[in-house]
Amino acid sequence: MPTALPVPIEFRLPEGWLPARPERAEVPDVAFAAVRSQPDDGFTANITIDGGFPKDEVTLAEIADASVERLREFAESVELVHRSEVGSKDAPALTQRLSFSAVADGARHELVQSQVYLSLADTEDPHKRAMIRLALTATTAQHDEVLHQFQDFVRSVRPDNGAVS
Description:
Elements: E1 9-10, E2 17-20, E3 32-36, E4 46-52, H1 60-72, E5 76-87, E6 92-104, E7 107-121, E8 129-139, H2 140-156, E9 158-159
Antiparallel strand pairs: 1-9, 2-3, 3-4, 4-8, 5-6, 6-7, 7-8
């Protein structure tokens, strides 16, 4: 079942990516999902967006740690390959890359997931922080090929203030 994001955002999907119904992305609590039009070895690369309002004292690193543990519930050999805190004090962000093995559509796949965690001010209460997670999941063989498209997607994400242009 799709969920709502804690704050409205706008973004631009890269060429060759199509919106998908989040419930078909087989990831719970996803607000938006997109799939690449060219699968690799039976696995379709996907981008998902979710988020929430973490407690004030919870860091992005702690949220990212919890994400790794959730992935371990259904995937094997989950490894944190890289993590980096980025952004600024006012707009912190965190990126991490995970590798793992999972079964999708009856076949085992070696996968890589790149995650970006953004901390955004709530549009209704600027003292309240929202967290948005953007994730790219692809086969190990395809990941580097689609990573630049995911990076373009991440750069396009903006708060949606409802203004009509």
